[in-house]
Specification:
The chain has 281 residues and is of the alpha/beta class. The chain is built from ten helices and nine strands. It has an eight-stranded parallel beta barrel with strand order 2-3-4-5-6-7-8-9, surrounded by ten helices. It is globular.
Length: 281
């Protein structure tokens, strides 16, 4: 069933478990996520991000994700992640996405507050939920790489003010996490997570989940993280599934699809079990 982010994260916060959000830039990825969630009776979030639109345009993502979520036997939120422009967030809402992340974290604080507060008013009027980001989660490589990530960590006191003034439904935090593949083992600031969760009362979001250890995930969830974003691990698994299919003699795209889906399903299963969301529906 298609639901909002709030309908998934509120029970997760109350129950002390995490929910996986998986970017799905094609039908095979979406199948791996939703079918596995149904099998495990787990709520799940699925969608895409603005930086991924070159791989699959937003309207095409909506064409397969919205109907698949509506038919699902478990709660599925279709989420537009890291929306960088007001226009694209509006497009996602009009296409049927039930939550958006309006990422204004690279702007100055007051601009971040003003922009996100406006988005919250619009989304709440449309029955959708909003995720904001305070601090800035950089990349492990490329243009978004931060020279000193700790300078961009989320400030707990500022987080409480941000939540009060914007009315966001969930807050993405920068606590030592980063997007993409980690070059070195990350060191998350778990005390900061706990302090922010207590000060805001909101479900927190951990971006840059691919590459963290099982212990990192468990501790982060126990301290207040309710939504964990995964893409790199899923993306790599699909590639490895295709390669395994080629080695087994599959000679067509149709023959390769089951290998890719099975490999991605294993990743989704592992994450849902790790986050504690299995059997919650």
């Amino acid at each position: 069933m298609l639901v909002t982010m709030n309908e998934i994260l509120a029970p997760a916060k109350a129950g002390g478990y995490g929910v996986g959000f998986f970017n799905a830039v094609n039908v095979e990825m979406a199948r791996a996520v939703i079918e596995t969630a149904e099998e495990l009776r787990a709520p799940v979030m699925v969608g895409t991000a603005e930086v991924l639109l070159p791989a699959m345009p937003l309207e095409n993502v909506a064409d397969y994700l919205i109907p698949m979520a509506e038919r699902a036997g478990v709660p599925v939120c279709v989420h537009y992640d890291h929306g960088l422009t007001f226009e694209k967030c509006m497009e996602a809402l009009k296409l049927g996405f039930t939550s958006v992340m309006y990422d204004c974290s690279t702007l100055d604080y007051e601009s971040n507050v003003a922009n996100v507060a406006e988005m919250v008013k619009i989304c709440h009027a449309m029955g959708a939920a909003v995720e904001g980001e305070l601090g800035h989660v950089g990349d492990n490589e490329g243009a978004g790489k931060l020279e000193k990530p700790s300078d961009f960590y989320t400030d707990p006191g500022q987080a409480a003010d941000f939540v009060r003034r914007t009315g966001v439904d969930a807050l993405a935090v920068a606590v030592g996490n980063a997007h993409g593949a980690y070059k070195f083992p990350p060191k998350l600031d778990f005390e900061r997570i706990e302090t922010i969760a207590a000060g805001t009362g909101l479900p927190l979001v951990l971006h840059g989940g691919s590459g963290l250890s099982d212990s990192d995930f468990r501790t982060a969830v126990s301290r207040g993280v309710c939504k964990v974003n995964i893409f790199t691990d899923l993306d790599r698994a699909g590639k490895e599934g295709v390669e395994a299919g080629l080695r087994s003699g599959a000679g067509t795209l149709m023959g390769l699809i089951p290998h890719a889906v099975d490999a991605m399903r294993r990743v989704v299963r592992g994450k849902l079990e790790l986050f504690g969301s299995v059997g919650r529906v």
